[in-house]
Design brief:
Elements: H1 2-7, H2 12-43, H3 48-76, H4 78-97, H5 102-130, H6 136-141, H7 143-164, H8 173-176, H9 178-192, H10 213-236, H11 240-265, H12 280-310, H13 315-321, H14 323-344, H15 347-370, H16 376-402, H17 410-467, H18 475-482, H19 487-492
Helix pairs in contact: 2-3, 2-5, 2-7, 2-9, 2-12, 3-4, 3-5, 3-10, 3-17, 4-5, 4-9, 7-13, 7-14, 10-11, 10-17, 12-16, 12-17, 13-16, 14-16, 15-16, 15-17
Length: 500
């Protein structure tokens, strides 16, 4: 594989297209399901907690298995896990489409998340393997437009498919989108990569690690104990067990750190490098990721529910109404990467936080002024502002956080960041969904949405404080300033952006 690493695989751009097809499958699935949620709510008679599980369960399973999925790729080969994860995603998507009740749909969504946890970590590793170091920047640059395009098309495509109602399938058609993408990715990987030639066991590491099974269980347990009471607590009246489970989550994560340190001390391979948590800016970065993604994903969910359940927008109408969010996000990413971050460093993230707050406050005022007669046109400008701030934040945030760790820790730190990002999305769905539905029964749709927007606004000072603890410059900027290689960041690639 040394010759490939120097000059690149002859089919590297076709292999990149296969990885992007898999990424699109994951990204589209999250935004499409959000738009479909109200239709599923009516068709399957799903209650508030059930709906939150259908949406957030995917992100929870994804987060719980993401780090272990990367390890399994190291052990058994990325090509094999890529194909297995893709086929698993397709199979679970088809099962979602044929779900007969909400319980089956929740189970299939959890299976989707588990399959994505096997699939997504392999793609970036395969790209690192087939592209020469000099071309990695060009390869990863393609991810930005794909992520942005998927974010724009997801709600619109989901709304169009639901509106089409082909053969009376309704919301079920949205899960069939994964079939062509998944089959192209799986069959293409089997043909173009070749058994053992690309992504084989040991082709990307000198010594493949062992799977830390106990660490994987502790990580999944901690996430489950945190999210489950958030979803079920409101419906159950917040009994004592919800608080005990929350405390149990903290214990599980603490045990994970202790176990990881012990594994490293005795010479085994821990699920995560416990040393990453000794860097205070990094641990503050984890908190930043949770707060930011919980607020963002939760706000998008409740706005979708408001439009369809409160204003009775059709799915396609709601999807088109939400498009300015994605447009603003794409524009913000360009502005941050080309202008703000190179000039302002960490201050650019704080400015982005204030931009988001201004847009959310504007959105709060528009909804308050127009109530259930709020039109799509009134929502364009505040959505663009919020999206602009989100794009300015998402694009560089991971880079700043990873600047807090050492070179050997970057891989483990990035894996934990991506898992925590998914966990934040699941928390946002559970938390904001609980606030929205609990307020809905007492004060109606308008006030319920406004309360959620005020919660999002309340995160502004928290984010400003957390961001102030991050390194002043991103890892890529530090490397450029010192003349060092940015290979460590290039091997991490882009954060996953689905929220289930």
């Amino acid at each position: 594989m040394s010759s490939i690493s120097r000059v690149g695989h002859p089919l590297r751009w076709k292999i990149l297209a296969l990885v992007l097809a898999a990424e699109c499958m994951d990204l589209l699935d999250g935004t499409i399901v959000n738009v479909a949620a109200p239709t599923i709510h009516v068709d399957l008679h799903a209650g508030a907690a059930t709906l939150e599980w259908i949406i957030g369960g995917y992100a929870l399973a994804f987060a719980a298995g993401l780090i272990a999925g990367g390890r399994l790729g190291d052990i058994y080969g990325r090509r094999r896990l890529f194909i297995l994860g893709t086929l698993g995603f397709v199979a679970s998507s088809l099962a979602c489409a044929f779900a007969v009740d909400s319980a089956m749909l929740i189970g299939c969504r959890l299976a989707q998340g588990a399959a994505a946890a096997l699939l997504i970590p392999q793609g970036l590793g395969i790209i690192r393997e087939v592209f020469a170091p000099a071309e990695l920047g060009k390869a990863f640059a393609v991810f930005g437009p794909v992520i942005g395009g998927s974010a724009v098309l997801g709600p619109i495509l989901g709304g169009a498919l639901i509106a089409a109602n082909a053969f009376g399938t309704g919301w079920r058609l949205i899960f069939f989108v994964n079939l062509p993408l998944g089959l192209i990715a799986a069959l293409g990987a089997a043909r173009l990569m070749g058994a053992g030639a690309v992504g084989g066991p040991g082709s990307h590491v000198a010594k493949p690690p062992r799977l830390d099974l106990a660490g994987s269980v502790l990580a999944a347990l901690g996430m489950g104990l945190l999210v489950y009471p958030l979803i079920q607590g409101q419906q159950a009246g917040w009994p004592a067990w919800t608080y005990l489970m929350g405390a149990g989550s903290a214990v599980a994560f603490g045990l994970l750190v202790v176990w990881s340190r012990r594994q490293r001390r005795v010479g085994n391979d821990p699920l995560v490098e416990a040393s990453i948590f000794s860097h205070r800016p990094y641990t503050a970065g984890l908190a930043t990721i949770i707060v930011f993604f919980a607020g963002m994903i939760g706000t998008l969910l409740v706005l979708t529910l408001f439009l369809q359940l409160g204003e009775h927008f059709t799915a396609i109408h709601a999807g088109l109404t939400l498009a300015p969010f994605a447009v603003g996000t794409a524009a913000g990413a360009v502005v941050a990467g080309a202008v703000l971050v190179p000039r302002l460093g960490r201050t650019a993230l704080q400015a982005a936080t204030l931009v988001i707050a201004a847009g959310v406050w504007w959105l709060h005022g528009v909804v308050g002024a127009h109530g259930l007669h709020t039109g799509s046109l009134e929502l364009i400008a505040p959505q663009l502002v919020v999206g602009l701030g989100i794009g300015m934040t998402i694009s560089p945030l991971f880079d700043f956080i990873l600047s807090a760790v050492t070179e050997p820790e970057v891989g483990s730190a990035a894996g934990v960041l991506n898992a925590v990002q998914q966990l934040g999305g699941a928390i946002g769905v559970a938390g904001m969904g609980t606030i929205f539905f609990s307020a809905l029964t007492n004060v109606g749709f308008v006030t319920a949405l406004q309360r959620c927007l005020l919660v999002e606004l309340a995160t502004t000072p928290v984010l400003l404080l957390l961001i102030s603890t991050l390194p002043s410059r991103a890892r890529e900027s530090q490397a450029a300033a010192t003349g060092e290689s940015a290979t460590a960041w290039e091997t991490v690639g882009y954060p996953t952006t689905s929220a289930g």
